[in-house]
Design brief:
The chain is of the alpha/beta class. The protein has three domains: 49 residues; 125 residues, ATPase, nucleotide binding domain (Nucleotidyltransferase, domain 5, 2-Layer Sandwich), CATH 3.30.420.40; 177 residues, Exopolyphosphatase. Domain 2 (Nucleotidyltransferase, domain 5, 2-Layer Sandwich). The strands form four sheets. It has a six-stranded mixed sheet with strand order 8-9-7-6-13-14. α1 runs antiparallel to α16, α4 crosses α5 and α10 crosses α13. The two termini are 14 Å apart. Bound molecules: adenosine-5'-diphosphate and calcium ion. Calcium ion binds next to loops. Belongs to the GDA1/CD39 NTPase family. It holds the Pfam family GDA1_CD39. Its main location: membrane.
Length: 482
Amino acid sequence: MKEKNPWHKPLTIIITVIGVIAIVALVTVAEIPPPVSAQYGIVLDAGSSHTALYIYKWPAEKDNNTGRIEQKHSCKVKGKGISSYAAVPEKAGMSLTECMQEAEMQVPAWRHQETPLYLGATAGMRLLNMENRVASDKVFEAVEKTLQRFPFSYQGARILSGQEEGAFGWVTVNYLDDRLKQGLQTTGALDLGGASTQISFVPREYDISESPSNAVAFRLYGNYYNLYTHSFLCYGKDQALRMALAHQTQSGPITISDPCFHPDYSVTRNYNTLYDSPCVSERKPKVAPLNFIHTGEGNFLQCQEVIKSLFNFKSCKYSKCSFNGIFQPPVQGSFGAFSAYYFVMNFLNLTDVFSALCIDNILTFKLVEQIKKLHSDINEKYLAEYCFSGTYILTLLTEGYNFNTETFSKIKFIKEVSSDAGWTLGYMLNLTNMIPAETKDSPPLPHAGYVSIVTVIVLLLFILCVCRCVWVKGHLTLSNGP
Ligand SMILES: Nc1ncnc2c1ncn2[C@@H]1O[C@H](COP(=O)(O)OP(=O)(O)O)[C@@H](O)[C@H]1O
Ligand SMILES: [Ca+2]
């Protein structure tokens, strides 16, 4: 008689049911496309001194909020900023062609059409727009014409407000540090450009109503942030230098001896060129020669006096001000200082240490010719201006924003944190809605998790089946045996 197989019926039914469920699940899950492709976004930062193109990349399958964005590529546009082409606007457009062609190569062709392309202009165009609206519109027309020729999804070119520039710089720094998602204490952002400078931070106690125009409220990943931000037009380092020179040429002299420049420095400058900016135009001396000779003297304390004269510390109708009657709560927490802050402080080796007392020792003004020999790879204009710029930065931070020895030590001079620090990433994150206001409940298991579990179940079933077959076969052999 054939022995009854104990594996029969209930077990077979269970195995069949689980097997069917597993196969159905596997088929369903397998239908979701695997997470392989990437998405791209392009932002052009049209600054006062130059334009830079940034390409960002993020995993395509993580819709909107979970994928990490990284900087894939950057390209420095040759020549000056777009505002410098006011007299020949078509050249502003042409200047962008090379970097745009690079972008075409960098982004896979099949992604071109869905890759958003933005251009944001900052203080250089803000000034041109104030000075000559028609010229500013023509520059934008030329730039648009060039950008639209490329196969990307062009989203427009516009001037960012100072508030946007400050706030997006803050978003970038905190996004890169991963502080927003984790709800950590945020880092303030200090951006020094050529034509404007921004300060943005979350103050300890903040009465927004005192100056609503300085307040930006964000809700990011479920957290509220009340950001203080201010952009000082004309206080970027190039316009600040113009203001310092204007201060020293009020009487229209033929020669000036500038304490902020090296003792052997001597350059002929044109009065019309110097005063050709809304930051200084009203102060142009009535009577002046065509040119003046700008010579150096190299004296830190006197240089600081000249620079202090660019700030008005007198009038303040708020509880507290930085300068020029602008409301500013006391600085709070750590700060990331980037763009020209970084370039200058990195060159002067002042990025790690600070003692208000030792600045003048560090900034002993050597002969500019010696410095040129030591740093033959660096642009001569930058070299000649580093002492002015260094003194300007220290004065702006300590006298202007009221950083003291303790709070200054919390400033980190940064070029990048995996991606370059600047407003462009924050701008793109905002325009593509990449940072959600709320944290979405993430699925209990990611796609890969489901696939693994189903695979393990199927494997177990397979092993179970094999065992059963072996058992049945063995049993039959035994029962059929002699
Ligand atoms: N290597 C460098 N050394 C010193 N300064 C630099 C260097 N590279 C860029 N800069 C300066 O950084 C500033 C960048 O400002 P930019 O972004 O063009 O202007 P804005 O933000 O005011 O529109 C300019 O003053 C430029 O001269
Ligand atoms: Ca800038």
